[in-house]
Design brief:
This protein is mainly alpha-helical and 351 residues long. The protein has 13 helices and 8 strands. It has a 3-stranded antiparallel β-sheet with strand order 1-2-3, with no helix packed on it. Strands 4-8-5 form a 3-stranded antiparallel β-sheet. It comes from Natrinema halophilum.
Length: 351
């Protein structure tokens, strides 16, 4: 199997199919934080096929090619990278897509590939013994470590100096419904463990509200008696989720498509005609506990207190600090490209 201008074995050439696929998954991870599991199935089958092919070529050659260049790297890849991916997923360090990506890489790239392009040979630096999938992983970790530094420099240049400048940046409230990540603010100040914005979207869809609706009438929607009698499906919180949401947002009789009512926002529904002040306290502000009890799952680990704090902030603030997180498939793709072109960045830096 040959490609004009490139010299490589058949298995190594087929492995290059992973490059555009991982580029696409990295893009999807940035845009939606969702990657379909079906994308990994063909790559897994390809990886298994080229692993068998590579093994047959190495066995036919014999000697160090079979032992040092194939068996040892394959054992490291399958015996080390696979458990690392599984354990990090188990303990919550990786998402499902991240773990599956590393599992696929462990099968697809156990050994160091070799590509000749004219007088050049890639990767430029190859260790005497090593699993290529482990090199991709260490490169990805180094890229992931560098990203907060880049973010901090970006914030510093813009004059945004804050304790969370390494993990987030300010975002206007209008962009929150289309923004991925986690809120870094509570009414008490900055935090590293604020409301997950996917959980926010779940809550708003469940109530049939937009964030603009909530900001227009926060005193009304903070009252749990305004919760809709028949909530909408909350979806999974994805920005791209489509729902058939009612737009009443609560129990009041709606007189417009935006959920406005001819009843004073301070009035409490449910047969109580008493007018409460805007500062009234409730047992379950925003209906946060009712929402979390009604839906399936935990809304990404959200507690009623976290949801209430996030809604209190978003109901009033014009700009909020948000941590976009680092979609790990982006560093993985960068680690793959670095590995194919340069090799092991960590080993190169040390030696």
């Amino acid at each position: 199997m040959t490609v004009p201008g490139i010299s490589a074995t058949g298995p190594d050439l087929l492995r290059l199919v992973a490059v555009p696929v991982f580029a696409w998954t990295a893009y999807r991870d940035i845009e939606t934080r969702r990657v379909s599991s079906t994308v990994w199935v063909p790559l897994s089958l390809l990886g298994t096929a080229v692993l068998v092919w590579d093994g047959w070529l190495a066995w036919s050659t014999g000697g160090n090619v079979w032992t040092t260049e194939f068996l040892v790297p394959t054992a490291i890849s399958l015996g080390l990278v696979v458990p690392i991916a599984y354990l990090f997923w188990w303990f919550g360090g990786f998402g499902g897509a991240d773990a599956k990506a590393l599992l696929v890489l462990a099968v697809l790239f156990p050994t160091f590939p070799a590509y000749g392009l004219g007088p050049l040979s890639f990767p430029l630096e190859t260790p005497p013994i090593g699993a290529f999938s482990f090199t991709i992983l260490t490169n990805a970790v180094l890229v992931g470590i560098a990203l907060p530094l880049v973010l901090a420099v970006r914030n510093a240049i813009a004059g945004r100096i804050a304790p969370v400048m390494f993990i987030g940046w300010p975002v206007s409230w209008e962009r929150i419904p289309e923004t991925h990540g986690r809120l870094l603010e509570t009414p008490a100040g900055l935090t590293r463990g604020g409301l997950d914005l996917d959980a926010l979207r779940m809550y708003l869809r469940w109530r049939g509200l937009s964030l603009s609706d909530l900001r227009d009438r926060p005193d009304r929607y903070r009252d749990p008696t305004t919760l809709p009698a028949e909530p909408n499906p909350p979806s999974d919180g994805a920005v791209t989720a489509k729902t058939q949401a009612r737009s009443d947002g609560g129990a009041l009789e709606s007189t417009s498509e935006t959920g406005d009512s001819d009843v004073d926002p301070a009035t409490v529904e449910g047969g109580d005609s008493e007018v409460r002040p805007a500062t009234a306290e409730f047992d379950d502000p925003w209906g946060a506990e009712v929402f979390l009890n009604d839906i399936e799952g935990t809304a990404y680990g959200t507690t009623p207190e976290t949801l209430r704090d996030g809604l209190d902030v978003l109901a009033t603030e014009e700009t909020v600090w948000v941590s976009p997180g680092t979609p790990f498939l982006v560093p993985v793709f960068a680690g793959l490209i670095l590995a194919l072109i340069y090799g092991d960045v960590l080993v190169g830096a040390i030696f």
